[in-house]
Amino acid sequence: MLFSIAVIVIAVTLLFILQNRVIVHLIQLEVFLRKLLKGNYTQTLHANMNYQEVISVEKSGLQLQAHLATLIDQFGIESQQIISASNDMRTVAVKALSLTREQNTSTEQVATAVTQLSYSFKGVADNAANASTSATLANQATADAIEQLS
Q: What does pTM read for this prediction?
């Protein structure tokens, strides 16, 4: 009977020790994952336990850390590419705006020239009308003079 109690006490003690080691490792894992969430992708995780489950969790945590670090690096590269493309687009937009302003200026100059030309044509037409009227009056005066002389 005493032997059975001793075996039970030893078993409970070993169970307590094993659970304590697992809890210590879970606390280390929890700290590791919290730091990972806060952006620390350079930390290391050492389990110091040879259980397959613990090794698997440690390996998964380190793989997750490496994957997140790779993603962040890719985001950095892609954000630089987006910034570069934005700068290129800005340059093109500035050139397009400049060309649009030049085109507006040229269009205004052409409109002004067409307006001046139309005024010139009107002046020429008015002068031609006056000349025609004068010629008609001269013809009439000539006809009247010829009629009086005959």
A: 0.47
CA distance 122 to 113: 14
For the chain (length 150 residues), average pLDDT per consecutive 10? 87 87 79 81 70 76 84 91 95 95 95 92 89 89 84
**E-assigned strand segments in 1-150:** none
Helix, coil or strand: residue 48: coil
Round to whole Å and give the CA distance between 42 and 34.
Answer: 13
Give the contacts of 21 (CB within 8 A, at least 6 positions apart). Answer: 49
Closest by Cα among 94, 102, 112, 37 to 68 = 37
- Distance separating alpha carbons of residues 113 and 107, to the nearest angstrom: 10
Distance between CA atoms of 70 and 61, rounded to whole angstroms?
14
CA 121 to chain centre: 54
Distance of CA 92 to the CA centre of its chain: 14
